[in-house]
Amino acid sequence: MNCFLSVKKIDSIRYLQVIFIRGTGSPHSVKEGASFFIKLADSSFVELKNLKAESSCRGCAYTGRFSGSQAEGSRTTYILGDKTIEILRRTPINKIRIYTSEGYSQSDIKQQKSDVLMKELILIDQ
Q1: CA 1, 96, 22 angle in degrees (round to 5)?
Q2: End-to-end alpha-carbon separation of the chain, Å?
Q3: Where are the beta strands (DSSP E) in 11-126?
Q4: Which of 54-58, 71-75, 98-102, 121-125 has the highest mean pLDDT?
Q5: 23-64: per-residue pLDDT in tens?
Q6: Are 72 and 20 in contact (CB under 8 A)?
Q7: Fold of 2-123
Q8: Do residues 9 and 15 touch, judged by C-beta distance below 8 A?
Q9: What is the average pLDDT score of the chain?
């Protein structure tokens, strides 16, 4: 599984958008309220809940690059509260796990991607 994490802010609400690409395999869905776990470098976890039901499709994970343009993927969105943002600003992410209709998928997060997300979380409120 490949994934892309990004932060966005609409009005005063901050969101984490997760785009994940399975590459091969059958379509899947992510239910409203499904858990998304983030494992941090200090071995603690953050749990977020999916805002709305999403179904995967070919090309749904397209990010503007070739990656994901023909692969099975989906986009999910999670609200980030103040406490969660503070934790994610200061503690690197090691791994993520997303629950789908087919069980779960997980992925290690490279240090560089974690660093970018930490910077986005700082910049989102400036």
Answers
A1: 15
A2: 32
A3: 13-23, 29-30, 35-40, 45-49, 54-55, 57-58, 72-80, 93-100, 103-108
A4: 121-125
A5: 666 667 788 999 999 999 999 999 999 998 777 666 665 556
A6: no
A7: Immunoglobulin-like (2.60.40)
A8: yes
A9: 85
Q: Which tokens belong to 97?
A: 């796990």
Number of H helices, E strands in the chain: 2, 10
**CA atoms of 117 and 89, how far apart (whole Å):** 8
Q: Specify the higher pLDDT residue, 97 or 102.
A: 97
d(CA 49, CA 38): 11
Cβ partners under 8 Å of residue 97, min gap 6 = 35, 36, 37, 39, 104, 105, 106
Quickly count: other Cβ atoms within 10 Å of residue 45's Cβ. 11
